[in-house]
Specification:
Layout (H helix, E strand, L loop, with lengths): L26 H16 L4 E3 L9 E4 L11 E11 L3 E6 L9 E6 L1 E7 L5 E7 L2 H12 L11 H16 L13
Antiparallel strand pairs: 1-2, 2-3, 3-6, 4-5, 6-7
Bound molecules: nickel (II) ion (NI).
Nickel (II) ion binds next to helix 2.
Length: about 180
């Protein structure tokens, strides 16, 4: 499948770096967005952050509706979580940079995110209790060098890393989930 080989896998150090803000949307910015969307769809992901394709800039792409058949991509530039609820929820999360594992992660249940789009407009996204709420937080974390495993307790993180290493050794590829590997 085109694209999947471009995805950076943990423990690549590029997944641990803070990403630079994008000052201006240029043709290169648009090309990056297009490439990220291509890679995300190729791997059947619902979100992808620029460092996952090796670019340390603040851009994420998300499409939480693709499973329903038609594409509805969001491109978020310089996204910020501006509100997060105290109430949390726990969801099984996967990540294209950690193929083969699904991990229960606790996060705020509701978030409000501000980001620019490719036209330079400031957009606001609000999500509560759904895949979009999880995906926004998961992808924005990547821009600070934070991965889903950083939300686990040290003991659970050690377990998840062991499961991930087993999955990689068994040939897991970006987009594979825990159930694909059973
Ligand atoms: Ni991820």
């Amino acid at each position: 499948m085109p694209g999947i080989s471009d995805i950076v896998l943990s423990p690549d150090p590029r997944l641990r770096q803070p990403c630079a803000a994008i000052d201006e949307v240029t043709p290169a910015t648009r090309r990056l967005a297009k490439r990220m969307l291509r890679d995300m769809y190729a791997a059947d992901g619902c979100g992808l952050a620029a460092p996952q394709v090796g670019e340390l800039v603040q851009m994420v792409v998300i499409d939480v509706d693709y499973a329903d058949g038609k594409k509805n991509p969001y491109v978020l530039i310089n996204p910020q979580v501006v509100e997060a609820s105290e109430e949390t929820m726990t969801t099984g999360e996967g990540c294209l940079s950690f193929p083969g594992i699904t991990v229960p992660i606790q996060r705020p249940r509701r978030v409000v995110v501000q980001a620019e789009n490719l036209d330079g407009d400031l957009m606001q996204y609000e999500a509560e209790g759904n895949l979009l709420a999880v995906c926004l937080q998961h992808e924005i974390d990547h821009l600070a060098g934070v991965t889903m495993l950083d939300h686990l307790s040290p003991a659970d993180r050690v377990k998840a890393i062991a499961t991930y290493n087993d999955a990689l050794a068994a040939g897991a590829r970006p987009g594979d989930t825990a159930s694909d590997m059973e």
